[in-house]
């Protein structure tokens, strides 16, 4: 299988599995990857997702140059272009963690950027080399990178084609943590477990308010925040969280 999919309690682990091709995305892998994302989003029993890859050399080096790039070139509108759903406007409000092992380039970098939290192995590298063959990032890289790091650094990465290492990525705030490769999945699971502790509807609403708020005015963002606060305060989880706090016990959240 080009993509592995495991469910560990409330955590979903999606694993890119084409190590022989440095986990580059061919059309079949994109299709499998999207099916996993849709299932994760729809499954009420899953609260947090981890996206990682097989092997030590690469998280993903992006679109497969022989099979996917010709399809992109032939597309006449965005809807025809093969792309990971996470890079489109899918509205996955459950938190997603990228556990980045090795080279994270091109479309692989764009998948990582579409995640909420990024944990990198010490050997990870990040960049957009496609500019060297006359292409620009087409899965959201030109839009998400300047929203994630300072504009000058984003411009350098987007226009030079030169990769940066994991320590530089951490220094500029691109990744949350850098760890030895052997500890990568343990750290990702620890982060996922930490994200399972708060009320899940509140976590998703906070993510939604943050992400959608980036696209609108402050006044509109404050209104969005107010509406989402109204939504969560009417949930069973809010009632349970409040009661658990009063009773000094652990809350039993149900995402309802």
In a nutshell, what does this entry contain?
The protein is of the alpha/beta class.
Structural class: alpha/beta
Kindly report how far apart the N and C termini lie: 34 Å
Topology order in helix (H) and strand (E) letters: EEHEEHEEHEEHHEHEHHHH
CATH architecture assignment of the largest domain:
Alpha-Beta Complex
- The count of helical stretches stands at 10
Shape call: globular
The strand count comes to 10
Helix coverage percent: 40-55%
Query: What is the strand arrangement across the widest sheet?
Result: 1-2-3-5-7-10
Poorly predicted runs? none
CATH superfamily of the largest domain: 2-enoyl-CoA Hydratase, Chain A, domain 1
The radius of gyration computed from the alpha-carbon positions, rounded to a whole number of angstroms, is 19 Å
| CATH class bucket of the largest domain | Alpha Beta
Q: Overall mean pLDDT score?
A: 93
Question: What characterizes the major β-sheet?
Answer: 6 strands, mixed
